[in-house]
Amino acid sequence: MNICPVCGTPNDPHAVNCISCGAQLESPLPRIEKYDLHRILGSGGFGITHLATDLNTGRKGVLKEFFPSGSTRKRDGSVELPQGYDLDEVLQEARVLARFKHESINMCYTAERLNGTAYLFLEFVEGKDLTSVYHSGILTPGLIKSILLDLLHALDYVHSQGFLHLDLKPENILLSDGRPVLIDFGSAVLHGSQSSRIVTHGYSAPEQYSKGLTLGSHTDFYALGGVVFYLLTGRVPPSSVVRMGGEDQDSEELVRQLPQDTPEELRQVVRRCMDLSIPKRPATAPELLSIFGVQSKLKPASRPSSEVQSKEDEGFRLALKAEEQQEFKEAARRYEMGARKGHLGSAYRLGLLHHYGKGVAQDFYEEFHWMGEAAHGGHPQAQFQMGWLCYYGCGTFRSIKQSVAWFSKAADQGHLEALTWLGKLHWMGRGVPKDEDQGFRLIKQAALKEHAEAEFQMGMAYLSGVSVSRHPSRALYWFERAADHGHLEALYQMGKMYRSGEAGVTDLIRSREFFLRAFVAGFADAEKEL
């Protein structure tokens, strides 16, 4: 309800003027299609947070409206954003984060574009943030330890999905029925990124203040150490930048400030997490869990027993048969059964079905999830596909660096297309230092094993003189090999070479033959040459 400040009459939340006395009401709630807004919960860098109900499902939750500084709301309720904001990027982040399903992570139900801006509909968590919890006076070392262990399991899960939170602080952790819940993933990025959207003094690690330094799980753990320090002392730790410029940079100085009755395990967490040196910080959540004698809750990547593997292999063969018979829904069902039991081939094939939308909805986010399951298990085709998804930003953030990492893993297992991609990236200097010679060597490795695209790229290298002296006859040789292996653009290039005489002879009849073969096979650019 929107209470009139003059007469106290309850009004509709969207009302502009009081129905009783006509007075202008303060901060009327905007009308947002599909949602019934109840009240404003707060506002911040992302925008405005409302308590709302989804009118389609009846579900009550938190609706975050992207309304950054400088935004304006028009009379019709739509939002005009300042220049420079990419809604697709905002929505892509939200959709990826919506994949998280963990008891200590605030669930994101939907993310969509409405009214000229973006909306995230999140789980409504009843609870107090850790700053309020500290001031309530209920914290004990035992409760702090319990909160910390739950947070470590949550971070273990987030990091296993390839993400970093990057804004851990007491205000972004709610305590609900004794369970901490991580909220506000607005600053989250892929593991290995080199940029941070926001810094919070006292909790942000030194690498978050500098461009070019790689962010990792160690960055989140620095902030986690700061949270523990706050819960034990009630003070925000000194900024890492201030510490870097001070005389005493050792984390032991922070440990000395902890209460005398602080358990040694919590002292170790502050000592190790808040070290200014990245190599001295923990690299994984299990390292910190081991301090308390606790193991990760994530399933270990162990191979199933031979009996179980045999059953999963049989299910995989039945799924392949269903796919061959174009019974895609049945194939998807069987692949998912196998994938959930750790069968890598099933996870890979299920990812492909999501890629092409066969038997399931076309969904790059689902593809990224299942490909990731297979790729982390060592499946080379899945590792290549993860490289492709990261390169084009499908189902995840676009990250050339992550793309190179996945292509390298696949190439190490002999995946020829991954070798070819790595070669081209070295030629272009994308995600790696530009090195045409290294690019040529990588592509040649794949070409010598009869990979058509690599053979074509060898032809282009000799035709254009990249890494080698220009040599049209060698270019023709590689184009012929690629064409024999079904490469259509190689046929097109051969047509051009016979027409120009670079093939050693001008032969318009042969030229037309190659153009025609390329066009009939589906290479559209060849049509204009006929």
Automatic annotation (TrEMBL):
Q: SMART domains from the entry?
A: S_TKc (SM00220), SEL1 (SM00671)
Which CDD domains did the record assign? STKc_PknB_like (cd14014)
**Where is each Protein kinase domain found?**
35-293
Q: Which Pfam family, any one, appears in the UniProt record?
A: Sel1
List the GO molecular function terms.
Answer: ATP binding; protein kinase activity
The transmembrane segments are none
| Domain of life the protein comes from | Bacteria
Write down the PANTHER family for this protein, in alphabetical order: ERAD-ASSOCIATED E3 UBIQUITIN-PROTEIN LIGASE COMPONENT HRD3, SEL-1-LIKE PROTEIN
Q: What is this protein called?
A: Protein kinase domain-containing protein
Source organism (scientific name): Deinococcus cellulosilyticus (strain DSM 18568 / NBRC 106333 / KACC 11606 / 5516J-15)
Its organism's taxonomic lineage begins at: Bacteria, Thermotogati, Deinococcota, Deinococci, Deinococcales
